[in-house]
Amino acid sequence: MIYHERQATGSNLTMPILALACDYDETLANQGQVAAPALQALLQLKESGAKIILVTGRQLGDLMAVCPEVHLFDFVVAENGALLYRPAARQTRSLAHRPAESFLDKLRQRGVQPLSAGRVIVATVQQHYDAVRQTIAEMGLDLEIIFNRDSLMVLPSGLNKGTGFKLALEELQVPAASVVGIGDAENDAAFLEMCGFSVAVANAIPSIREAADMVTGQDHGAGVVEVIHKVLAGEFDRVQTPR
Prior knowledge:
With 243 residues, the chain is of the alpha/beta class. The chain has helices at 36-47, 60-66, 101-109, 129-139, 161-172, 189-192, 206-211, 220-232, and strands at residues 3-8, 11-16, 19-22, 51-55, 75-78, 83-86, 91-94, 116-117, 122-125, 143-148, 151-156, 179-183, 197-200, 214-215, 240-241.
């Protein structure tokens, strides 16, 4: 059993590390692709008995197109927390309604391109922030804008990666304190702050690097491999996090 140690209310609490939660783009994947060493490391971790959760802003169909190895994950939190998917059972669950066509039509009229809509999420790029914000305000919609590097995502207020991650943990019956989380960008903060131990890959934005318990020496998937090897080697044993 692998352990790390946290400080809380003046005493040390020891929790087993039962799972790894990882972002996809620019964390596990580089330019949409996962390198073979990262896939092999994920398989080794899975064979050790640990659970693996993918937490991504991508729409599920898009993810499956670029990552045919999605079956390696015990749970996928997609659409930035709005869609849950269990690969083994091929079960999906949306946490909110589809975006209104009237909203999408208005964005198109304002020249918002590229523009994509999933089961819940609406996505474009940050340069259209003003147009998206104005449309939401004019239509009186209860929607929230979330950033991910150069991308912009629109979701029902209160939905984020943390929302879907919490539900995934409940279904897997894994406490958040027993999870090592890895990410790189603004939208990852919502689930990383819930994890027992948070990691930023070397290419992460400054705010994620500063908030993480650890920053990897390597970037993208190589950084994830670095973390998995540490977990498998027991190097997270008795690690104290200053939270």
